[in-house]
């Protein structure tokens, strides 16, 4: 791969954009007046004036607000601060404002209406179609198609924000949801590690064997409140062979009230009432469940792997050899290890000016495929060595894993003992299934109510719960979608 400075990359990309936007009447290359096709009866129409200078994108004066990591993500903030410093060296007239707003689907409409949403904000994989249809994500198709490295972006992630042929977001990192296992806790309790190619039954048996309710230790901590609960459960819907919805001729139909859906719900019921393997206080959100894992109060948590691993290593005091990442277990031996495919994306505010949108795009991709980005990452890893901290990579990144840049980053990771390495068996087995594009967060929230009923009442009628949930999702959300 050729090495370009970030300034050259910026100028090249936006030169292409400027060319693409030309209407052919300026007298520059491509104008009919210069190719002999129309000379007005022999009159010399060649434009001999100097062509206008191309815009120097680095000299634009603008203020952009950006997504800034939460205070608990100290190392991530350090990386962002370094990026801002280096970005301002190239774009000296841009003020970068750190936004403390974290994306929330229940707040984004209010933020947009009040013109308070950041210029560049972080969101997750389910939101592409929602934001595009609401007009809350800028159409960046032209900028993206002029981006030099667009063909090296990871299509598994980037395609999630390609809606009806238009591009509305920039992939950052992603994951198929997996299961993070406290290997040390299992060994301390003399519980045999399950195979990576495990099944639902093996997960249940392992969780039951580790669970010690009187000591406040659970075998597994499935999330039980917020939309996270429905999200966790959907992994089992997928591995049982089910799905959330189907779309035919623009009509969206709920299909989770199925044999697979009932199997997944019964499995949750078994974890609670047969195995007694979940926390007594099971109403845990993402932070609660991941915190319980980091503190050694549960042996397993279901999530995008890098988050729980990072907290366990850097806040919980565990060592890399104490933690294993597994794929979601298959329903039965030989089945698929589907995990809900999720990730982090950056979206540009459509209310921003054209200059602000251009700058936001360049800020988002500033370190992409860049040796400067690798150097910054290496400095961050080295600082973590000095602080006895670990770096945990994402399972999936914005670039293709087999790209030259991907190989460079892998070589960098292999240089340091404080970079967490995922087991090769997991990387070979783990499989991602994209979230549905219509009202997925609403579906998750609805299923959270069902899951809470299952965890609250041993005698709950699970089929009735699914019936009611599917009817609600269909009538409240899917029937309102116009084909």
In short:
By secondary structure, the chain is α+β, with helices and mostly antiparallel strands. Helix content is 41%, strand content 14%.
Global Rg: 25 Å
Structural class: alpha+beta
What is the 3D shape?
globular
The portion of residues forming beta strands comes to 5-15%
Oligomer: single chain
Average pLDDT for all residues? 88
From the 3D structure, determine the CATH topology of the domain at 178-341 and 425-480.
Answer: D-Maltodextrin-Binding Protein, domain 2
Treating each run of at least 4 consecutive H or I residues as one helix, how many helices?
18
Write down how many β-strands occur, each being a DSSP E stretch of 2 or more residues.
14
Q: CATH superfamily name of the domain at 178-341 and 425-480? A: Periplasmic binding protein-like II
The low-pLDDT segments are 1-53
Q: Would you state the CATH class of the domain at 178-341 and 425-480?
A: Alpha Beta
Our measurement of the CA-to-CA distance between the termini, rounded to an integer number of angstroms, reads: 44 Å
> Helical proportion?
40-55%
Biggest β-sheet: count, sense, barrel? 5 strands, mixed
Going by CATH, the architecture of the domain at 178-341 and 425-480 would be 3-Layer(aba) Sandwich
Protein name: ABC transporter substrate-binding protein
Region (Disordered): 27-54
Signal peptide: 1-20
InterPro entries: Bact_solute-bd_prot1, SBP
């Amino acid at each position: 791969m050729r090495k370009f400075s970030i300034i050259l990359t910026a100028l090249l990309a936006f030169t292409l954009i400027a060319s693409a936007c030309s209407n052919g009447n300026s007298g520059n290359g491509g104008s009919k007046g210069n190719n002999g096709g129309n000379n007005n009866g022999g009159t010399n129409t060649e434009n001999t004036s100097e062509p206008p200078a191309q815009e120097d994108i680095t000299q634009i004066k603008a203020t952009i607000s950006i997504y800034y990591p939460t205070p608990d993500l100290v190392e991530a903030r350090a990386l962002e601060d370094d990026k801002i410093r280096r970005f301002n060296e190239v774009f000296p007239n841009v003020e970068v404002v750190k936004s403390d707003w974290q994306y929330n689907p229940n707040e984004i409409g209010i933020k947009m209406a009040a013109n308070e949403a950041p210029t560049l904000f972080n969101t997750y994989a389910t939101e592409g179609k929602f934001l595009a249809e609401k007009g809350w994500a800028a159409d960046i198709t032209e900028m993206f198609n002029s981006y030099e490295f667009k063909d090296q972006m990871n299509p598994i992630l980037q395609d999630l924000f390609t809606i009806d042929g238009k591009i509305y977001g920039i992939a950052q990192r992603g994951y198929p949801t997996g299961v993070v296992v406290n290997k040390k806790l299992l060994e301390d309790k003399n519980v045999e590690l399950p195979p990576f190619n495990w099944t639902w039954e093996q997960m249940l048996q392992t969780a039951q064997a580790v669970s010690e309710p009187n000591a406040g230790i659970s075998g597994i901590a499935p999330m039980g409140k917020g939309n996270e609960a429905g999200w966790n459960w959907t992994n089992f819907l997928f591995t049982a062979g089910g799905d959330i919805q189907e779309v035919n001729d623009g009509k969206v139909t709920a299909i989770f009230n199925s044999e697979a859906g009932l199997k997944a719900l019964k499995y949750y019921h078994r974890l609670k009432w047969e195995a007694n393997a979940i926390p007594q206080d099971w109403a845990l959100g993402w932070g609660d469940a991941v915190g319980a894992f980091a503190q050694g109060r549960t042996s397993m948590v279901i999530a995008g792997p890098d988050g729980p691993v990072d907290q366990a290593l850097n806040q919980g005091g565990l060592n890399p050899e104490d933690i294993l990442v597994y794929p979601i277990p298959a329903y039965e031996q030989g089945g698929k290890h589907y995990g809900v495919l999720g990730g982090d994306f950056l979206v540009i505010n459509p209310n921003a000016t054209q200059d602000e949108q251009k700058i936001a795009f360049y800020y988002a991709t500033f370190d992409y495929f860049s040796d400067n980005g690798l150097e910054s990452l290496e400095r961050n890893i080295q600082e973590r060595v000095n602080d006895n901290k670990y770096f945990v990579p994402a399972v999936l990144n914005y670039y293709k894993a087999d790209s030259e840049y991907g190989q460079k980053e892998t070589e960098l990771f292999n240089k340091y003992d404080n970079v967490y390495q995922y087991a090769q068996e997991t990387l070979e087995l783990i499989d991602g299934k994209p979230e549905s594009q219509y009202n997925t967060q609403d579906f998750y929230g609805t299923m959270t109510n069902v899951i809470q009923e299952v965890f609250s009442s041993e005698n709950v009628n699970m089929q009735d719960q699914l019936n009611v949930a599917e009817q609600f999702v269909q009538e409240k959300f899917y029937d309102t979608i116009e084909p």
